[in-house]
Amino acid sequence: MRERIVAGQIYHVLNRGVDKRKIFLEKSDYMRFIHDLFEFNDTESVVNLTYRFTRTTRVVDTNNFKISEQHKRKLLVEILAFCAMPNHYHLLLKARTVEGIPEFMKKLNMGYSKYFNTKYERSGTLFEGRYKSVPVGSEAHFIHLPFYIHLNPLDLVMREWRQRDIKNYKEAMKFLEKYRWSSFLDYIGKKNFPSVTNRDLLLKFFGGTEEYKKSTVEWLKQQNIEKIMGLTLE
Description:
Shape: globular
Structural class: alpha+beta
Number of strands: 6
CATH topology of the largest domain: Alpha-Beta Plaits
Strand content: 5-15%
Largest sheet: 4 strands, antiparallel
CATH architecture of the largest domain: 2-Layer Sandwich
């Protein structure tokens, strides 16, 4: 039985492709998912959503893709951080209401699945289940999770980061700063998809963009991943 959501609580949320299949096959799929993070974070229903990102008049962000809105949104959740990987995604969400996260996740997973199945002419389940979530229950948990989420892309090039065995931290950070499909760039002061996330809470906690970047490197060097696996969903 899924744990009851508590308004104001922060949750780590994860979902992956069924049978660990890839859910993002090309750049436009990542773009669509990030667009959906923004678009579906609204108490009102989204209608006539097509492959085109710009369907209305007022543009919120422009950076190789456009997000637009017709009205002032009433958010279901606060998206604190995210990372999209080839076969799964991580979200750090703050519940605005008891039903905020379940409603947002339903819209996100169903909306993206419909897009993916239509585009690739497939049918059936895309994700392995509804989604997994765990409340952030302590300051220690809160401190570790943003780094863990943002460092996930290193699995693609330096999986040894999980054993704290990286030889070149400069190259690791260089890769992360080129990986667009997470909120990391916005957290270190490089505009990427700034309207998707609410970064005030974490940046205040960590001391700003420069300090967050420095802290990421230090966490990468010092943290033993095995010791925090109980705090993650993987």
